């Protein structure tokens, strides 16, 4: 087993905080990942899989358990039963952004708007990563995972992962444990072969972000470059020289509230109506799961997603805000990112997060939910 001298999580997470675990395994092959996990589970000891550490707030105290660093890589191209598409099976530790770059270079459409998201491909389904209207749920076919409950490796279709807005059954949300304790070994995506020429841009949110109208066509490479430039301006592309990127990306999820509640918020708070399931798209029920009954049509007005960044700034916490003597602050580019200005502790990040939650709740009556996975930290 490739056991290494444990490193502090402060060196392995993009927030640059976190104590040192008792054991650390650097698993470079799928067999090593499986063996390390089975070993930790056999001893019933605390454990954590870590990819790029870009969605983790890890406490300052030493961790009395095993951290398994998932460092596998590789992409296998396979035919797809769908005309004009191919499938890619990607090892869990493969860098997500390297994968996006590879697909764009190969003329494959489906994940280009998610350029610049840090971390590994295996962690991507855990919170159903998304950006500019694209989410991995749209292209994910299946994952291979190893379940803690059985120790077995199985292939699980995307439909069984409970993928939703920054969530899945595999995510350890703050205040609760994951519905299914498992580690992804590989991810299979289905992408469309569109080549290198200009193609119509699908998705209104992406078109808006790129400043394009419905008739516009651009190449995948142009989409990637533009997305990377927009993200860099917001401090959302990792950059060692820029402390605004010493973060976990958006620290809070955009809250989803009822349309009635959204009406009570100031009119200039940005909001996006959520599509009601089945309202404007057909619901597809796989034949082998169709039991003769149809799901009920949704009633009432669909819920509304509101801008957490706007709520934070209008609760009096501007970009760059920090508590006196704290080394954690809101990013100077984006109020939604909590950042480490160099030597902050997890405690300082959590203190700032608590204040943001309290201010937004007392000003607007909205309880912000943290997006990163937290271990050994209380808000
Ligand atoms: C600057 C910045 C910008 C970001 N922008 C976005 C964005 O636009 N959209 C978005 O959705 N997210 C964004 N994020 C969040 C983050 O990059 C993603 O959630 C990413 O998928 C996390 O991958 P990771 O490998 O770093 O996961 P880690 O932080 O290592 O782990 C996160 C969680 O997943 C678990 N995990 C890790 N690997 C596996 C595995 N193989 N199987 C099962 N569980 C696993 C961990 O145990 C942990 O619970 C951003 C983060 C940063 C720092």
Condensed summary:
This protein is α+β, with helices and mostly antiparallel strands. It is 20% helix and 23% strand.
Report on this model:
By secondary structure, the chain is an alpha+beta fold. The protein is built from seven helices and 21 strands. Strands 6, 7, 8, 11, 12 and 13 form a six-stranded antiparallel β-sheet that branches. Flavin-adenine dinucleotide binds next to strand 3, strand 9 and strand 13.
Helicity level, as a percent range?
Answer: 10-25%
Structural class: alpha+beta
Q: Class of the largest domain, according to the CATH hierarchy?
A: Alpha Beta
Q: Any idea what the radius of gyration is?
A: 21 Å
Keywords, separated by commas or semicolons:
globular; Uridine Diphospho-n-acetylenolpyruvylglucosamine Reductase, domain 3; binds flavin-adenine dinucleotide; 379 residues; alpha+beta; 6-stranded antiparallel β-sheet; Uridine Diphospho-n-acetylenolpyruvylglucosamine Reductase, domain 1; 23% strand; 7 helices; 3 domains; Uridine Diphospho-n-acetylenolpyruvylglucosamine Reductase, domain 2; 4-stranded mixed β-sheet
How is this fold's topology laid out?
Layout: E1 3-4, E2 21-27, H1 30-42, E3 47-50, E4 56-58, E5 63-70, E6 75-79, E7 85-91, H2 96-105, E8 108-109, E9 130-131, E10 134-135, E11 140-147, E12 153-157, E13 182-193, E14 199-200, H3 204-210, E15 217-218, H4 220-233, E16 256-257, H5 259-263, E17 271-273, E18 304-306, H6 308-313, E19 328-330, E20 338-340, H7 346-364, E21 373-375
Parallel strand pairs: 2-5, 3-5, 4-21
Antiparallel strand pairs: 1-2, 6-7, 7-13, 8-13, 9-10, 11-12, 11-13, 14-15, 16-18, 17-18, 19-20
Bound molecules: flavin-adenine dinucleotide.
């Amino acid at each position: 087993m490739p056991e290494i001298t444990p490193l502090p999580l402060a060196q392995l997470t993009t927030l640059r905080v976190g104590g040192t675990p008792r054991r650390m395994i650097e698993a470079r092959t799928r067999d090593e990942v499986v063996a390390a996990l089975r070993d930790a589970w056999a001893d019933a000891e605390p454990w954590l899989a870590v990819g790029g550490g870009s969605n983790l707030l890890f406490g300052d105290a030493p961790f009395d358990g095993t951290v398994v660093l998932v460092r596998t890589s590789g992409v296998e191209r396979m035919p797809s039963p769908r005309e004009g598409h191919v499938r890619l099976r990607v090892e869990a530790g493969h860098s997500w952004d390297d994968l996006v770059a590879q697909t764009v270079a190969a003329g494959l459409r489906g994940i280009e708007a998610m350029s610049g998201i840090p971390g590994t491909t295996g962690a991507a389904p855990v919170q159903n990563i998304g950006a500019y209207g694209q989410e991995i749920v749209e292209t994910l076919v299946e994952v291979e995972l190893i379940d803690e409950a059985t120790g077995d490796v199985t292939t699980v279709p995307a439909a069984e992962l409970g993928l939703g807005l920054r969530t899945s059954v595999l995510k350890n949300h703050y205040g609760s444990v994951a519905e299914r304790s498992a580690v992804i070994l590989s991810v299979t995506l289905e992408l469309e072969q569109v080549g290198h020429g200009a193609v119509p841009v699908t998705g209104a949110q992406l078109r808006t972000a790129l400043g394009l109208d419905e008739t516009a066509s651009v190449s995948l490479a142009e989409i990637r470059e533009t997305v990377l430039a927009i993200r860099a301006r917001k401090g959302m592309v990792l950059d060692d020289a820029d402390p605004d990127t010493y973060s976990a990306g958006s620290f809070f999820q955009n809250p989803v509230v009822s349309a009635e509640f959204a009406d009570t918020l100031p009119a200039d708070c940005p909001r996006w109506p959520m599509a009601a399931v089945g309202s404007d798209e057909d619901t597809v029920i796989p034949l082998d799961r169709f039991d003769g009954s149809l799901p009920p049509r949704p009633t009432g007005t669909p819920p509304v997603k509101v801008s957490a960044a706007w709520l934070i700034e209008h609760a009096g916490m501007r970009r760059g805000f920090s508590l006196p003597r704290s080394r954690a602050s809101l990013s100077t580019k984006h109020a939604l990112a909590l950042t480490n200005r160099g030597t902050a502790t997890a405690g300082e990040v959590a203190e700032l997060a608590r204040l943001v939650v309290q201010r937004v709740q007392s000003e607007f009556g909205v309880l912000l939910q943290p997006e990163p996975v937290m271990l050994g930290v209380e808000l």
